[in-house]
Amino acid sequence: MNYFHYKDNQLYCEEISVQEIVEEFGTPLYLYSKNQVLDNFRAIDRAFADVDHVTCYALKANSNQSLLKLLATENAGADVVSSGELYLALKAGFQPSKITFAGVGKRDDEIEYALKQKIFSFNVESIQELDIINDIAAKLKTTARVALRINPDIDASTHPYISTGLKTNKFGIDISVAVEAFKHAASLPHLQVEGIHTHIGSQILKIDPFVQTATTIVKLVNELRGVGINIRHIDFGGGFGVAYKNAIQHPFLLVEENAESVPLREMFISSIVPILKQTGCKLIIEPGRSIVADAGILLTKVLYRKENSVKKFVIVDAGMNDLLRPSLYNAHHQIVPLTVTQGEPEVVDVVGPVCETGDFLARERKLQHVERGEFLAVLTAGAYGIVNASHYNARLGLAEVLVNGDKVRVIRERERLEDLM
Ligand SMILES: Cc1ncc(COP(=O)(O)O)c(C=O)c1O
């Protein structure tokens, strides 16, 4: 179900008119649907129901405490990449025994903190990191549970900035030295080798790279068992792609062209589970985007319009510092008015107030004509949105609100001038 929808040509989130929300809370504003987050999480978790598994939400997608608490209450695990994310996960109530810690550059103090919290597993990204974790665990007179993140050199066919499973990417331990790395890990007295981790990228829209990766990992598990290293869990990472085009449809909205077909999450999962299941291992998955992306929108107000002989600009009050994805990856987000009307669309650049030409939310976009004072919704902004926000140009941190049915509450206060440092 899509909790963002039009009713009488007005955009609604669940049972509340979005216009009412912007009038009350102002813009720029991130707005989330609680029930969309829950539906997404439950659909993914259910698809793994017939295997022993933990769905570890990847905090990097969105680490707002209120959203985290929702997921912790659903018994989700957490995938973290810093001591900050670990702190936020613990604070929200995730059980340490369901927390995995990935990242190519874990600092010593972060390793120490995670060991003291008794997390489920470190997803180790290099041979040197194995030695460091072993040394720190020895110093603390404890043992670290580890999984080795393997880089399978498989092309996820996604944007190069979010591809992580190729030899040229900094992530993981090269598959060609994986057995040696596992043997080394098994020889270290303060490590307990538990699993294999892999994560080949984000916003993946093809099933085949997942199938290839699953097949590669199963082969490796068998090889390792052959040399006496018993792998108990496979952490398959995240990466399920979501639809950024035509996220909302309405007879008055243009159908966005060249939309890629996005397999259902259940299809991704049903293609990998039978392969991974053969090993008898417990499965961990780390979805981020597929849980929160379509549960969030960014709301912005039209400040000015201007045009010259080649361009029409719609200047809005949200910029690249609020939603970086368009500037960073040229990512597409559907942008819709809060009230749809029938009429000829115009081609515009939707740009923010930041002093960079790269500050845009959309370029050469066909959009319903909007005037100063009207609001726009930038859709599918729940993942990798607020977490990438910055104070560039000393812009104030924006507010976040959460809708549940006909209720809305603030889950992050808008910053005031006095909050700036
Ligand atoms: C190790 C790891 N796990 C999980 C994720 C979450 O990926 P996604 O948001 O695409 O599901 C990421 C993000 O790139 C990651 O690096």
Summarize the structure.
This protein has 421 residues and is of the alpha/beta class. It folds into two domains: 4-30 and 294-419, Lyase, Ornithine Decarboxylase, Chain A, domain 1 (Beta Barrel), CATH 2.40.37; 34-288, Alanine racemase (TIM Barrel), CATH 3.20.20.10. Helices cover 27% and strands 25% of the residues.
Give a structural overview.
It is a single chain. The protein is elongated, with a radius of gyration of 23 Å. By secondary structure, it is an alpha/beta fold. Strands 4, 14, 15, 16, 17, 18, 19, 20 and 21 form a nine-stranded mixed beta sheet that branches. The protein has an eight-stranded parallel barrel with strand order 5-6-7-8-9-11-12-13, surrounded by four helices. Strands 1-2-3 form a three-stranded antiparallel beta sheet. It has eleven helices and 21 strands. The two termini are 42 Å apart. A hairpin with a 4-residue loop joins strand 14 and strand 15. The chain has two domains: 4-30 and 294-419, Lyase, Ornithine Decarboxylase, Chain A, domain 1 (Beta Barrel), CATH 2.40.37; 34-288, Alpha-Beta Barrel (TIM Barrel). The protein binds pyridoxal-5'-phosphate (PLP). Pyridoxal-5'-phosphate (PLP) is lined by residues 58, 60-61, 79, 102, 164, 199, 202, 237-240, 286-290.
